[in-house]
Amino acid sequence: MPDKPEFPPGVEKTSAEEEHEYHFYTGNEIPWYVRMIWIGFWVFAVYYTIRYLFPALQLELFQDQ
To answer: Would you list the DSSP string of the chain?
Structure first.
C-alpha cells in the first residue's frame, strides 16, 4: 500500500493546510428587511390571535346551546 494517495494527472497535490485559503466557512446573514418581514408577521399573528381567535373560541366553547 502506498503511503500517499495517487492523484490523477492534472490534479494539484496540495492539502488544505498547505493551501490555507478557500476553506473559510461563514454563515449566511439574514438581511434587515427579511428580519422586518418576520417581525411584522409575528406582530400580526399575535394581534390576530388576541383580537379574533380568543373571542371566537370563547363563543364556541362556552356558549349555551
So the answer is: --SSPPPPTT-----HHHH-SS----PPPPPHHHHHHHHHHHHHHHHHIIIIIHHHHHHHHH---
**9-60 per-position pLDDT tens digit:** 767 777 767 766 665 666 778 899 999 999 999 999 999 999 998 888 888 8
**Distance separating alpha carbons of residues 56 and 2, to the nearest angstrom:** 75
- What is the grid cell recorded at 19? 493551501
C-alpha span between 16 and 23 (Å, rounded): 7
Q: pTM, whole model, 2 decimals?
A: 0.49
